[in-house]
Write a structure and sequence with these properties.
Layout (H helix, E strand, L loop, with lengths): L14 H7 L6 H12 L4 H11 L3 H10 L11 E6 L2 H6 L1 H12 L12 E6 L11 E3 L2 E3 L4 H12 L3
Parallel strand pairs: 1-2
Antiparallel strand pairs: 1-3, 3-4
Amino acid sequence: MGVTNNGAMDLSLMDEVFEKYKEQRGALIPILQKAQAIYGYLPPEVLKLIADRLGVSIGKVYGVATFYAQFYLERRGKHVLRLCDGTACHVKGTPVLMTAVEEEFNISPGETTDDGQLTVEIIYCMGSCALAPVAVLDNQVMGRIRQEMLLRKVKKQIGAG
């Protein structure tokens, strides 16, 4: 996403975004949102471009991007698995789920597989305690999930099984 044939970041994709928000003061957050939608995350080149075009410091842009959990500074996988590790989910088996995912896909929380297919995140409460343990794969909630079923669903979703 957002890369030219020679592998460079295609910053021209941001031109339309800047045009849309050129008359709006304080449009940093929507510009960051659009940039992330284009590139899948917020690469350093894009953060610098945003700072330059808005006439603000890179520190301010970086500060906003790191303050809000919706923004990602590292490339994310095509598929995202979130495992709840709030108290109820932890007690009901999230550590076992995480170990199974780590062993099966050679990935730790906060990482993306080498092939770019899967990102795994730990969330510290999804508010679905009655369904513990809870996993969310590409925004599909799976309650009372067990490791065999979780691994099967993830493999199916990413096309590895």
